[in-house]
Design goal:
By secondary structure, the protein is mainly α. It has a domain at 50-110. It contains four helices and two strands. A two-stranded antiparallel sheet has the order 1-2. β1 and β2 (95-99) form a beta hairpin.
Length: 113
């Protein structure tokens, strides 16, 4: 069985209840000093140049180097293979693929089996 509180009013409990309801007065400027100390301890964001922000978003220097190399290879392949590999449409709207003789190592990819 649980015991219930006695029916009489305890003067000590009444004093505790009154103390919980009233807020003690703060000294002048205490809250302002606490907030100033808290603001001084907050970390400040470091401003970075725009190019570092972009490189960081892309994944850093290794990722940017990979993207630059891919762009260079794309320009090289686009400039070199356009003469050798041409797609032409005949007047009958059928597509023919013309493979030139100068494909180099790419001709191994065209062999079946």
């Amino acid at each position: 069985m649980t015991q219930s509180k006695p029916p009489f009013d305890d003067p000590l409990e009444a004093a505790f209840t009154q103390a919980r309801q009233t807020m003690p007065p703060l000294p002048d400027g205490l809250m302002a000093r606490v907030l100033a100390d808290a603001a001084a301890e907050m970390p400040r964001p470091v401003r970075q140049p725009w190019w570092r922000q972009i490189f960081g978003t892309l994944g850093g220097w290794p990722a940017v180097a990979g993207l630059a190399m891919t762009a260079c290879v794309g320009v090289w392949v686009g400039g070199t293979l356009t003469d050798d590999l041409m797609l032409s449409l005949s007047p009958l709207d059928e597509a023919t693929l013309d493979f030139g003789a100068g494909l180099g190592a790419f001709d191994l990819l065209l062999v079946d089996g």
